[in-house]
Amino acid sequence: MSALGERPTGWVDLLWLPLGAGGHVVRWNGRIYEWLSARHEHRAALDLYHAGLMVHFGDVTYAVEMGPVWNVSANDRGVVCEGPVGAKWLGRFRIFRYEVRCWAGGHIPDIAEAVDGPVRTTDDPEIVEGVLKMLRGVPSLTWGRDELRTGEMWNSNSLVAWVLARTGHDMEDFGPPPGGRAPGWDAGLVLADRQLTGLD
Question: What is the mean pLDDT of the chain?
Fold first, then answer.
C-alpha cells in the first residue's frame, strides 16, 4: 500500500499475443479457422490475437487472462470464475473447462511473444481499482459459443473487451495490431453496452 495520505499507484496494460503462442496445435487450428472464415467472408486472412491484461494497483501486479483450468498448476493463481468450453454439458470434464485468473504476482504464459508491446489503457487508480472489482463479476459463459446472441463467440478477447468497456475505457482507442483481428472482441463490447444501457 502507498504511504499514509498518498493515492495508490495504478495502471492497466493490454497485451496482444499471437493465437497459439507457445503451442503448435492451437496455432495451426487458428490458421485453419481464419482461412475458412476469410473464404466465407470473401476477404484476406488475417493474423489472430488473444488478449490479456496486466493490472498494477498499490504494490501488487495482477496477471489477468482466460485459459484452460489445467495449464497453470499454482494453487494461488487467483481464479475468479470457471466456465465450460464448447458446450455446457462438456464442462463436467476438467479438460473442457476454462478459468479466468486475476493472479496477484502472477504471469501470463508466453508474454514474451506479445506484439507491439504492452498498451497502457489507463493510469488512473480509480479506474484500475474498478477493473479489479469488475473482474469479480465476470459472466461464466460457454467459451466458443454465442449464447447471448451478440454476433460473436465468447472467449478471452470477449472477457478483456467487456472488462475495459465496463470500466469506462474509450474502446475506440484499442484493437488488435494492424493486419490482425481478435475474434470475440465485439461480443464483450456488445454485452457491456447492453449492461450499461440496462438492456441485459
Answer: 87
